[in-house]
Amino acid sequence: MKKQYLGLALIVLGALMLILSYVCNLEDYNFYNIGALLVIIGGIVAHIVLTKRS
After folding, report:
1. Burial of 43 from C-beta contacts in 10 A (0-12 / 13-18 / 19+)
2. How many CA atoms lie within 13 A of 29 on its CB side?
3. 20-43-17 Cα angle (round to 5)
4. Using one digit for the tens of pLDDT, what is the confidence trace for 3-47?
C-alpha cells in the first residue's frame, strides 16, 4: 500500500471499530471508543500531512 493512502486506511479502520462496537454492544467501554476516535483523528492528521508533502 502506498503511504499516500495510510491516512484514509486509518479513518476507515476507526469507523469500522465504531461500527463493531455498536454491533457487539461495546459502546459502554469508553477506552475502546476513545481508541477508535484517536485512530480516526490520527488518520485525518496523517492524510493531511502526507497530502501536503506530495
Report:
1. buried
2. 12
3. 5
4. 789 999 999 999 999 999 999 998 888 999 999 999 999 999 999
- C-alpha–C-alpha distance, residues 52 and 54, integer Å: 6
Residue 18, Cβ neighbours under 10 Å: how many? 18
Q: Do residues 40 and 1 lie in contact, with contact meaning Cβ atoms separated by under 8 Å?
A: no
Q: Is the pTM of this model over 0.85?
A: yes
- Report whether 33 contacts 15 (CB < 8 A): no
Cα distance between residue 47 and residue 54, in whole Å: 11
CA–CA separation, 51 and 12 (whole Å): 17
